[in-house]
Amino acid sequence: MPIRFYNTLTRREEEFVPLAEGRAGVYCCGPTVYAAPHIGNLRTFFFADTLRRFLEFRGLQVRFVMNLTDVDDKTIRGALRDGVKLDAYTQPFIDSLFRDFDRLGIRHADAHPRATHYVPQMVDIIRRLEKRGMAYEADGSVYFDISEFPGYGKLSKVDVSAGRRGERVAADEYDRDDVRDFVLWKGAKPEDEQVGAVWDTPWGPGRPGWHIECSAMAMDELGETFDIHLGGVDLVFPHHEDEIAQSEGATGKPFVRYWLHGEFLLLEGDKMAKSTGNIFNLQDLVERGVKPSAIRYLFLTAHYRSKLNFTFAALESANEAVRRIRGTRTRLRGHPEARDPDPADEPVLHPLADEVLAGFTGAMDADLNTSVALSELHRLASGVNQRLETLGAKPISSAEKQAALDAFERIDGVFGFLALAEREAEVDGDLAAWVEERIAARQAARKSRDFATADAIRAELSARGVTVEDTAQGARWSVTG
Ligand code: AMP
Ligand code: ZN
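Above: inputs. Below: predicted complex with zinc ion.
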């Protein structure tokens, strides 16, 4: 069975046929680094990571690129407000992005190009567009002439006839009713100079428009035509429409073969957006005791093209599901095994593991149907539970055990929440060891009547969210912070 994806360009589910057999070039629009990502952004990056992991699961060699938008209207505004240079302003947000990726088990891309490092490539595309009569200068900036590109509107299906001929829009973000010539290169303004966001070009000093950045980085990293381009639904227009116009306008070749768009994460029914402040970021959630493994699970329960409403109740059941599946795998790992099992005992787990892997693959092949794929993992876990119950204290054959463990491992190579839950448990274990050591030191200090040290240790524990209670049986501790 082939892999199929819903292609926004054709509005149909299509068989995925990569340009080069056995390989896939994938580009995901990365974050604008003007704030820590919120978990809505993270849902989109998680979706990209899941797609990449699944293509690898299917044996493809994937080159996965995710850019960092480190110069645009919003980053410049932020740097100006804080009175710092652009790169000093964006760096902490880049650092926090990768910290969140690590905590959520989102693998880093093969390349994370930064827009500010790709200006020569942008200039080159704009020159090619000028040569082909698709770009023109006006008010010290350079614009794309949408009337010169017949394919304009093919991705978003915007009504180009409603566009006002010769009118221009200079902002990075604009609405469908604003279909107009868009900016490729912006002539320098005093505030750009102030934050060090100015480059010399044939059109004088200035800085790139947002859309040209992704065309330049994507084509430089993956070639003029590549397989898959991803992003959130809000990027279909104008960002991706404009990327197509600039790239195809410059090269005369198709830019991207499959366009995939992830739906929004909602917070209590509303769009989560940095601009409105209706957000949670990962740090907020971790501080409330939410486990990243539960967030991963929650994301998988909805198809990437469906909206997902984020609630704490849903997170709670996600956490419970992760705990159950992990518990099953741990029990299976610990069950006694024998090379030669009881011949009267019919093995059931290897046929089940094969069925589950086939079911998982089939569901993911169908445009990444993660919720159905997840139900296959539950089927495996139930089968294992039943099997262990039937066996009681009797050993399981090594082959049968291994087949089931391999299926868990392969599926989690794509889903990733079991590995993450195991890492979280280790961290919990590390914390426990540290707390025990500190409590022992505190008891020793108290014994020698060094109350200052004892109090300092209590404060140290409390700073890590640990509360100590002294009882007749000794000190009892819990994590409350
Ligand atoms: P930004 O940092 O604003 O450029 O957004 C980075 C990515 O997150 C883009 O692909 C957006 O489409 C996506 N995104 C923004 N808000 C949400 C949301 N509430 N849910 C899911 N994805 C989002
Ligand atoms: Zn982009």
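Residues 417-447 form the longest helix (31 residues).
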